[in-house]
């Protein structure tokens, strides 16, 4: 056992009795507006925030340690559970990283279906953000509306993967299987009604004077601070930094899609709301392009030692049966090396750093999740603001504690 | 994915990519601090002298690699040097990522290794260094708030080290 040489522990700031206006407030970890188990140690002077310290780790499950004990293909279901609101982006990022190590060529159809589904997953993430953010502000109706549309997305996930939230549909080397009959028609029908629904949310919120007053001019984050603190995704673009990995460092054939990257230079909570709302409309555009141009062909790479064979083949061909047995019982060796794969998920830049020592189990899997870095910017956004605005700012950075604590 | 050829070794990489902005930045700064370089899987990696990591970060930051994206450690137990720190730095201008690596050894079996914190260069490294301290027991000199971040404050041991069992001590 290793001795821990005395890590300093958190000392709660004590209120100074000579200044009766100063107060230390503990928000969370069971506060409904902290979206999980985030604890904020807030110091206030009257109603003005003087410091915010996020205390995290209440949801730490040691997923990175667990990954080291699993075969490469067994890690895919673990990744869903990290950011459970954007499951397919997690699958995609991990699979791309391992595929880079294996030097696998993924068939075009699989890449396009991956794009289609990660965009649906982004919509899922943004719909939950919009509903809960509006609910935190006090607009309860929007929550019911967005969850109605989210339900349809979850049904689509269920149709394609058999699971509503923990999809694990992307596999190393392609997809688990071909999507079911009629799946693309269902997606097309949903994409037909969704723009109207987004107009509906927008009608409820964009010109709503209460919502506007709560968000405009609140939680300002400058572009320089955002870059210095590692903020990514919609909060970074709302501060005026024009970077989106889908367009700038394309992966999984994103370079074949036309879409705009919305940015705003205002940098407040309202700008983050506007950017995400436009992003939802851009996602619909990407999905429609994917539906229109969907290539035909296989959905799994031609790599019998990595990708499980079809059931039919496995039952009729000796070689396929041997490969199936080998992959399931002892995994597949991945060449030694280290790779980092970054993608743009709903919250910002996600990254998987996978280190292989040449065996069938990853030597180290590190997950970079956007909320973890964005949380560092919370103090900058809230300092000098009112305590009542803290909830609006926390909602606007769209945190998921599962991905912060891992 | 067609991949670029693999290059390994300090002189090979420096010779093959003399025009690369990151290579130029490192050479102009202090080429003696560059222990090793490689280019594989389309990713450029520089192994930096552990005492020079903060200065190396300043050098690449000035060369346009402006965004600190990720940082973590790898435990190569029982090999020596035992720990590897990997910093992933993104350039918004070049749309490209580089990796800086530092190899660290334990000074003695009961003493934790230490390295300079890069929070003066990128404040966003704060939580990442706390995480590495928490899970690997690597200390960062000059870090403003080096406390455990994910594990409880009174936890004993460093869970992501390879000599720490997956299910914890019983």
Describe the fold and architecture.
The complex is a heterodimer of chains A (406) and B (170). Residues 1-5 of chain A have low confidence and may be disordered. In chain A, a hairpin with a 7-residue loop joins strand 7 and strand 8. Chain A is an alpha+beta fold. Chain A has one domain (65-405): Orthogonal Bundle (Cytochrome-c3 Hydrogenase, chain B). In chain A, helix 4 (108-137) runs antiparallel to helix 11. Helices cover 46% and strands 12% of the residues of chain A. By secondary structure, chain B is an alpha/beta fold. Chain B has a domain at 7-111: Beta Polymerase, domain 2. In chain B, the strands form two sheets. Chain B has a six-stranded mixed sheet with strand order 1-2-3-6-5-4. Chain B has a two-stranded parallel ribbon with strand order 7-8. In chain B, a hairpin with a 7-residue loop joins strand 4 and strand 5. In chain B, helix 2 crosses helix 3 (53-62). The longest helix of chain B is centred in the last third of the chain and has 11 residues, at 126-136. At the A-B interface, helix 1, helix 3, strand 6, strand 7 and strand 8 of A face strand 4, strand 5, strand 6 and helix 4 of B.
Distance linking N and C termini of chain A: 24 Å
Under CATH, the homologous superfamily of one domain in chain B reads: NADH:ubiquinone oxidoreductase Nqo5 subunit
Question: β content of chain B, as a range?
Answer: 25-35%
Question: What is the overall silhouette of chain A?
Answer: globular
The CATH top-level class label of chain A = Mainly Alpha
Number of helices of chain A: 17
* CATH homologous superfamily classification of chain A: Cytochrome-c3 Hydrogenase, chain B
Rg over C-alpha atoms of chain B, rounded to the nearest angstrom:
17 Å
Counting DSSP E segments of at least 2 residues, the number of strands of chain A comes to 8
Radius of gyration of chain A: 23 Å
**The CATH C-level class name of one domain in chain B:** Alpha Beta
- Label the CATH architecture of one domain in chain B: 2-Layer Sandwich
> Can you tell me the CATH architecture of chain A?
Orthogonal Bundle
Largest two-chain interface: A-B, 53 and 56 residues
CATH topology of chain A: Cytochrome-c3 Hydrogenase, chain B
Low-confidence stretches of chain A: 1-5
- What number of domains of chain A? 1
Task: Report the average pLDDT across residues of chain A.
Answer: 88
């Amino acid at each position: 056992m290793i001795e821990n040489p005395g890590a300093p522990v958190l000392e709660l700031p004590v209120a100074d009795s000579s200044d009766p206006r100063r107060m230390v407030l503990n928000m969370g970890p069971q506060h409904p507006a902290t979206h999980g188990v985030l604890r904020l140690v807030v110091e206030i002077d009257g109603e003005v925030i003087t410091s915010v310290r996020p205390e995290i780790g209440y949801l730490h499950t040691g997923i990175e340690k667990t990954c080291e004990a699993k075969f490469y293909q067994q890690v895919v279901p673990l990744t869903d559970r990290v950011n459970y609101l954007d499951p397919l982006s997690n699958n995609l990022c991990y699979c791309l990283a391992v595929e880079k190590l294996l030097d696998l060529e993924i068939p075009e159809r699989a890449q396009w279906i991956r794009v289609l589904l990660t965009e649906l997953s982004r919509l899922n993430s943004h719909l939950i953000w919009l509903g809960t953010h509006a609910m935190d502000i006090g607009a309860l109706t929007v929550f019911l509306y967005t969850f109605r549309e989210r339900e349809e997305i979850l049904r689509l996930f269920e149709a394609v993967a058999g699971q509503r939230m923990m999809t694990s549909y992307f596999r190393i080397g392609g997809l688990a299987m071909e999507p079911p009959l009629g799946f693309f028609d269902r997606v097309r029908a949903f994409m037909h009604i969704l723009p109207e629904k987004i107009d509906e949310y927008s009608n409820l919120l964009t010109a709503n004077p209460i919502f506007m007053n709560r968000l405009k001019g609140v939680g300002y984050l400058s572009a320089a601070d955002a870059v210095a603190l590692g903020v990514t995704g919609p909060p970074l673009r709302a501060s005026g930094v024009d970077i989106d990995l889908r367009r700038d460092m394309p992966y999984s054939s994103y370079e074949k899609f036309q879409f705009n990257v919305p940015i705003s230079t205002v940098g407040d909570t309202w700008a983050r709301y506007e950017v995400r709302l436009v992003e939802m409309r851009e996602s619909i555009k990407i999905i429609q392009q994917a539906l229109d141009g969907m290539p035909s062909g296989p959905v799994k790479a031609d790599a019998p030692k990595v990708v499980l064979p079809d059931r039919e083949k496995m039952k009729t061909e000796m070689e396929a049966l041997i490969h199936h047995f080998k992959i399931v019982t002892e995994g597949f060796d991945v060449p030694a090396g280290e790779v980092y794969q970054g993608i743009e998920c709903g919250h910002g830049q996600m990254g998987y750093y996978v280190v292989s020592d040449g065996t069938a189990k990853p030597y180290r899997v590190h997950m970079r999740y956007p909320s973890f870095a964005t949380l560092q910017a919370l103090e900058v956004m809230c300092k000098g603001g009112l305590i009542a605005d803290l909830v609006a700012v926390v909602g606007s950075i769209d945190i998921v504690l599962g991905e912060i604590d891992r | 994915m067609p991949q670029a050829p693999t290059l390994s070794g300090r002189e090979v990489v420096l010779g093959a990519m003399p025009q690369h902005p990151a290579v130029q930045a490192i050479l102009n700064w202090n080429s003696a601090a560059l222990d090793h370089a490689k280019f594989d899987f389309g990713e450029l990696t520089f192994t930096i002298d552990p005492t020079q990591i903060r200065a190396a970060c300043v050098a690449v930051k000035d060369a346009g690699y402006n965004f600190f994206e990720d940082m973590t450690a790898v435990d190569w137990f029982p090999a020596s040097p035992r720990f590897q720190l990997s910093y992933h730095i993104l350039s918004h201008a070049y749309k490209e990522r580089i990796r800086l690596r530092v190899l660290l050894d334990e000074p003695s079996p009961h003493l934790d290794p230490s390295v300079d914190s890069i929070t003066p260069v990128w404040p966003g490294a704060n939580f990442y260094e706390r995480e590495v301290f928490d899970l690997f027991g690597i200390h960062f000199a000059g870090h403003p708030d080096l406390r455990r971040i994910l594990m409880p404050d009174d936890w004993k041991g460093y869970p992501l080290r390879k000599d720490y069992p997956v299910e914890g001590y019983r």
